[in-house]
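Proteins fold reproducibly. Look at a sample protein:
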Amino acid sequence: MKTYIKKFSLLTAGLLLAFSQSCTKFDDKMYSAYTEDNFPKTPAQFVALTGPVYTAARGYFGDYFDLQTAGSDEVVIPTRGGDWFDGGKWRDMHFHTWSTSHEVVRNAWNWGFNAIGTCNRILSIFEQTEESELKTQTMAEIKTMRAWYYYLMMDAYGNLPLVTTFDDRADLPETQSRADIFNFIATELEENLQYLSEEKSEQTYARPTKWMAHSLLAKLYLNAQVYTGTAQWDKVVEHADAVIESGQYTLEGDYLAQFMPDNGPSNTEPIFSIPFDPARATGNQLFNKVLHYGHRLTYGLSVNTWNGWSAQPAYFDLFDEEDYRTQQWLSGQQYDATGQPLVFNGVNVILDPYAYALLPGSDFDIGGDDNIGRLAGARNVKYYPDKDQVSNNAGNDVVVYRLADVYLMKAEAILRGGAGSVTEAVDLVNELRKRGFPGDASKLYTASNLTLDAIYKERALELTFEVTRRTDMIRFGHWEDAMLFKPANTGETYKRIFPIPQDAINTNENLDQNPGYN
């Protein structure tokens, strides 16, 4: 069992009973529960008080992951006979026909703003206490987390209400422009950088360090042209360099090791991760979404998996058979734990990456026969199935930012005109290619063939299921492209952001719907 999860859970257990993830006002009695005499003073006590800020992050791998991933070209979630119809929500995500009342759109919005409200609530407690270095650092960490939550919401929904207090001023906020939210995030991160820890250790794991903030700033500026209309490539390079030159992180020798069920603080590449545990920190259920029913016998699982999410053929074809990163995909003949061909319901389980045959009259149903629709599509096991899962919850920590992404961000920024030489960009990307194709120099890039298209492809190979693809597709101009079953929707550029949920507008008349969704 991961010891850092155990420690974190014991510290926060009591507080989680008192805190709820809502945007409603904090009970006045909670304010009076802390006085100058009994307010937490030790680092462990501060961690306990701030626990809800971090437990809220686990929702990132739920509805927010679905929102960012289900409409991209890396996955398709077809109806398989009676399975995975779910009211048509996955079809809507795939065809980009979501509405203002779409379940995933609504749930992701609620998650993000509940998390922001939690940050504001806990900051309001700390603001009443006497000054200390520990207080300053803790508040900087919470503000950085709030900036991260705002970044996620701004990337998805564009124009947002901006709330930084937990009092009457938080009632019915007005919509702020995406550019204004961008500036708030940038300012918040820049102002708090100096107070964040530079340490990479078990104690700072899953908390925002200075290097997490630099990574987030690099990500923010990488998409500045999309968010504000003005490119800021030099700033991408600046913040990527801060991470690289810190010397705190190195590429993992084994690409897949950082995603295993026992991943954690000892991994050298992740910069910011969200801890999960099968019993104490639940919510990582990705293995259920991707695995065929029969894979229960492959991975020694005690639950029945759901057999839904699979790769689009064109995306799967990006991967070279010789690339080590291809090992994250399951295709072809499957085997049980003893090495015997896997059989389910009397059918040999052979996953076909290309067998997406629509039923007559349907545009998204590929059928439920065990040897047809249910065997279609390669399955992604980058987050290796956890044999010790409990009630559908795995223990793999979810990697949010890691060094490979920082390398790719800097390389792309240089090619787009940022500070640095093409040679630097080539060297950075080749570090990843060397890991993918060890000992094969023919697979390395040169200054003549490292193009932006090559960077776009490399990001797919490196970052599948890491909540980057939708943002990448938009930045590279591919969000409206045709995909499996889906025609191009060239005239619908307004769908580069999601609508503000109608429920939110019904609750707050000061919110303006995003253009195109009225």
Notes: The longest strand covers residues 270-274. The beta strands are 160-161, 175-176, 270-274, 329-330, 332-333, 343-344, 347-348, 350-351, 379-380, 398-402. The first helix runs from residue 3 to 18.
